[in-house]
Amino acid sequence: MTVDYGSLPLAFPCTCVGLCDADCECRAGGHFCDQVCQCPTTCVNRWQGCDCTCNSRGSGDEDEDQEECCRLKRECACVRAGRECGRMCKCARSKWGVEAGCVNRVIGAKLVDPQKYTYVDLSHVPNGGWGLFALCPLSRSFPLGEYTGEVITDAEADRRGLVYDEMKLNYFFDLANDAVVDAFRLGNALRFINHGSGKAANVEPKVVMVNGSQRILLRTKRAVGAGQELVMDYGPKYQLWKGGSLELDNQ
Length: 251
Ligand SMILES: [Zn+2]
Ligand SMILES: [Zn+2]
Ligand SMILES: [Zn+2]
Ligand SMILES: [Zn+2]
Ligand SMILES: [Zn+2]
Hints:
alpha/beta, Beta-clip-like, 5 helices, binds zinc ion, chromatin binding, S-adenosyl-L-methionine, CXC_dom, SET_dom
């Protein structure tokens, strides 16, 4: 089963003194406990990490790229659960595309900087304003970086939305139940990625759990050539929206 962190409540580390019971905030919210929780390490709700052993010589699977691990959903417990690998995992940390090892440590390991691989220019999308483009050829599943911003409540997003609609700008992304990331002031260049529906989208967002909090990872859906515009499908909410502002919605 795949955990959809975007539909769970915003995670806060629990403050359980003993073992987590029904009152535990993590358990009540449908989250695993993490190293940031106060409960003892013997807590049965603690995420145990994956036991991928890519630090030896691949997984033995002929189809798999021997230099990467924790990439295939069916193998890595972390990838299946929508989590980045962390301290409790057995896999080895790697530099994306440079060293062999786990490729499921991106945001937590601060491995990618969107500025290195992309640039902002006038969008080819009609009424798109600024858009984001690939600076160099990017391989499939290349992590572009984290969609950053302020985490605000739905009510605050509704309030700000009225102002943004006037400006014809909107950089919201649904992160969790009652939690929206607003990239208007504190976001990075990834907020300039415009909407492209269905097959046109060459970027996909995913809410992943990193060290106890939900974060938004954007990565390429397929290989992208240098100079190509990056677009992603903003989801059904955006399709319903009428007016031209850019609302990001996770899948
Ligand atoms: Zn707890
Ligand atoms: Zn907990
Ligand atoms: Zn793994
Ligand atoms: Zn792992
Ligand atoms: Zn890993």
